[in-house]
Amino acid sequence: MRSDGTRKKKSKAPIIILVIILIAALGAGAYFLLSKDKKKGGGIVSDEIINPLTGESVEELLPRPIQFSIDNAAPARPQSGLSAADIVFEYPVEGSITRIQAIFYTELPETVGPVRSARPYFVDTAREYKAVFVNHGWSPEAKEYLESGVVPYISGLTYSGGVFFRTDDRPAPDNSMIHTDKLLEAIEKEGYDEEQDVRTFNFIEKGQKAKGQKATEIDINYLTTKCSYEYDREKKLYKKFSNGEVYIDKETGDQITAANVIIQFVKSQVLDNKGRLGIDMKAGGDAILFRKGKVIKGTWSREDMDSPTVFTAANGKEMKMATGNTWIQVLDQNHKLEYDAGEEE
Questions:
Q1: What is the pLDDT of residues 291-327, one digit of tens each?
Q2: Whole-structure pTM value
Q3: Which of 126, 205, 230, 248 has the most C-beta neighbours closer than 10 Å?
Q4: Residues 6 or more apart in contact with residue 120 via CB below 8 angstroms
Q5: pLDDT in tens, 255-290
Q6: Could you tell me the residue range of the domain that residue 316 belongs to?
Q7: Is the same domain home to 61 and 158?
Q8: Same domain, 218 and 185
Q9: Does 247 reside within a domain?
Q10: Computed from CA positions of residues 113, 119, 122, 128, in that sequence, does the dihedral angle turn out positive or negative?
C-alpha cells in the first residue's frame, strides 16, 4: 500500500464516549450500593424493605411503630385490627384479667380497638419500640409517666378531632374505637411522625431448619382468662384461643394466628387498693420461644428502658424467630404455663 509518509490521526470520539459510559455505569453502581445500604426504620431500601419486627419483605413501613392499649375483657372481644399487628403483648393487670398492647409498623387497618387505659409497664414497651402510644384513660402513675414526655402519645381523655369514637354494640368503657386515618392525621399534626431506628429481632434464615423440642400445644392460665395456642403444621402458625373459644379479629372474622409465641416471665407486685400491678420490665428473667412447632428455653434481658429486650437461648446466643408476627405472653408469679414437649429435633 502506498504511503505518503504521514500517519492519519485516529478520532478520540469513540474513546470519550466509552469513558462517559463507564463513568455513568460506575456512578449508577455506586448509587445502587448507597441505596442498598440506606436504612429505613431498620429495613433496607433498595429492591425491598424488610420489616425489622417480622423479618418480612414489605412494600412500605409507617414512619414509626404505633402501639395501642387494647381492652381484653370479655365484653371487648372480639377486638378489631389485631390480625394486622406485627408484635402483640398480653399483660396481666388488676382483677386477674389481661390487657393487650398491639404494635403496628407495616400497616394500619381502618379500625382498631376497643382502646383502654395505660399502665406504666405498657409505656415501658412503647419506649422500647420507639412507638407512638395510643390509650383511652390511665392509672395515676401512667398519667404522670406519659406527661413526663418519655414517649409521644394520643389519649382519648385529652385528644379530640374524631380520632376516638364509641360504638353502640357493646357497653362503655369497652367500646372506645380508633379511626386510624384520623389518628395518622393527628400524629402528623403533632409532629410525632419522625422516622425512628426501630429494634430488630434475630430470624431463622430461609431454608434453615428450626431446632428444639417439638411443642405444638400451649396453655396459659391467667386465673380468670385461659389463653391457649395450637400449632397448625400446614400453615406453620399458632392458632390462638381464649377460654376455649376461637380468638378472632372482628373486622376480618379470621382466627388470630402467630408465627412466634414468646413467654416472658416477670415478677409483679400490687401497688394500690385497686390491685394495680407494678412490673419491672428491665429486671430480666426466664423466657420460652415457640416457633415452627418447636420450643426453645432461655432468658430475657434489657439494659435500660430505651434498649431492646433480648431473648437469649441456653447456649448464650440470641434466639432465632420465624419470620412473621409475634405474640409475647407476659406471665408473673401468679400465672401458670403448660405445654406439650416431645423429642429434640
A1: 999 999 999 999 999 999 999 999 999 999 999 999 9
A2: 0.86
A3: 126
A4: 139, 141, 142, 145, 278
A5: 999 999 999 999 999 999 989 999 999 999 999 999
A6: 213-339
A7: yes
A8: no
A9: yes
A10: positive
